[in-house]
Amino acid sequence: MKNNGDDDVREMLQRILLPRKGEPHDVRMLYLIEAEQNKERLTWADRVTVTVPAGAEVSFQTYFNAFPASYWRRWSQLEHVLLRMNVAGTASVEVYRSKIDGTRVAVAGHLVTDDVAEFTIPLSHFEDGGWLWFDVTAETDTDITGAGWFADREPGPQIMPDGTEVGPFEKRATVGIPTFNRPHDAVAALQALGEDPLVDAAIDAVIMPDQGNRHPADEPGYDEAVAHFGDRFHEFRQGNLGGSGGYSRIMYEALGDGPAGAAESPFILYMDDDIAIEPESILRAIQVGRYAKSPIIVGGQMLNLQERAQLRTMGELVQREDFMWGPARHSTYDHDFSRYPLGFRGEDADEKDPDAKNSRDLHRRIDVDYNGWWMCMFPRVVAEQIGQPLPLFIKWDDTEYSLRAGKAGFPTVTWPGVAIWHMAWTDKDDAIDWQAYFHLRNRLIVAALNHDGPVDGIISSLRKSTFKHLMCMEYSTLAIQIESMKDFLAGPDQLFDILESSLPRIAAIRKNYSDAVVIPSAADLPAPSGAPGVPTKDVGGRLGKVKKLSWLLKGLKHSLGKEDPRHHETPQVNLSPTEARWFSLSRLDGATVTTAGNNGVAYRRRDRELAESLLKETLALHKEIAGRFDELRDTYRAAQPELVSRESWRRIFE
């Protein structure tokens, strides 16, 4: 333990935070876990001071307050970390670490009375995983304040890929938030940035490209939020250039190429407008960036905005065989910390069940290829060296940037405890609505730039999804995917030209297909007539592997026959999104499917002639892509420097 008079450097890496007032129990579990036997609850007057009643116990083995030691060992300059807190009262403070399987190991502990508790913990035992945390048992009513994880030195210079040194860097960042017709969310994001003095002090500038026709400036609270930042705030109104256009504008301005004259921050931090943020995450990201051995892109993890104790994704990579997004090794999706806290290693009865829920994998360090731009921070030196985002409108722009950076020697790290809340993509229809055009076109473009292996896996993946769309009567999706493949084959020279025009063109195409038209309610249509030959128990749900082949044959047989036009007026069934599976829809001629947002239904009508036409054109394009892929690789790679240059983007912005 150290005395208050110690004058050594104490650089905060990660504050211990208390939940905001009024947070429900499940969200509080992200910050602290009170022992079930406590007779009194803990209280806190602010977010950094907690009162632990006499006899109560509390653990900070939680998502936001445990220290992801394995990440600091792998990526930082530090060999040890300090845990430090002010203790008023008498309490036992016990420090623990975890192994890669979540096993708890005691590290240190003291009974502290009215003193500063400080522990120095080496990072030597965290090669592949492990967290640090502490528990408190109060002997008397005890106040703990100013708790956090610290470095005992300032960050040093960083090593660039070519061996030169840069830095050390100051604790400053420019924050960019593009917005499109979400004025309330945009204002809420601005307010969140200014609510914590320490976070506010680290923000050099806030850049907000406004690409919609509903402006944050017309929203209550905007004037006060902007006044708080004063001349640090810069708004730019521009056409709808999508996420890539908004984020490229932020980088363009932050690098000093635009009229704003934004401060030359050492870091540029992207955030979506439709998020809720833990502002502390900004400080944590900056500190990770400052203490890195070499410049790295720091990604924030995504918590589920609708299930706020749930970690949507830990980290992802691009699967090389089919060049599609996928989970990183040992990562997990939709982990609910209120049910399975960080210390939950599973029940004894589940030991032989590989599907049993536990938190063991959360103790492994996860290595990724990229991070979504819901929250992502770039060292200025990286942006200066590798250029702007590609003009892709939306989808895959974030993936491509990290892949490009990785090739240049700047890896991306998705960092635990640095996070925002965002709506999970499972609550969107983006795989089948207008976004499906950008999903496929941009996947092919990014593959041409980065995929060096055979194209067979990509083509096989495209064919599989094509047949699923056909069996699900998603004809509008196939129609716009045809456009996406044509635009990919047309080459890179047109990407800037179609940056604004692609979306209106795709929207016009979708209007011609009933599956793309949202009807307010299934009640606006005749009552379902039923589906003869398709037992109710076989509609929706999950399908065992052994049944897939037989159901595929049944679906194909039905799909090859002529549709019954009666079911184009009266649906056979009304299906929820989870029930609208290929093995159900492939045996129907007409069905409504509720949108992922639960705000209406789409009436899907089987049309054999249309399906045959779409299939024929799609397969012909698959064949052309396979035959020309090597040529297109060369073409896109030759064009990449121009596509990501600030000069090219300047012509768009000006």
Automatic annotation (TrEMBL):
Pfam families: GlfT2_domain3, Glft2_N, Glyco_tranf_2_3. GO terms for molecular function: glycosyltransferase activity. Residues 13-152 form the Galactofuranosyltransferase GlfT2 N-terminal domain. Residues 458-654 form the Galactofuranosyltransferase-2 C-terminal domain. InterPro entries: GlfT2_C, GlfT2_N, Nucleotide-diphossugar_trans. Pathway: Cell wall biogenesis; cell wall polysaccharide biosynthesis. This is Galactofuranosyl transferase GlfT2.
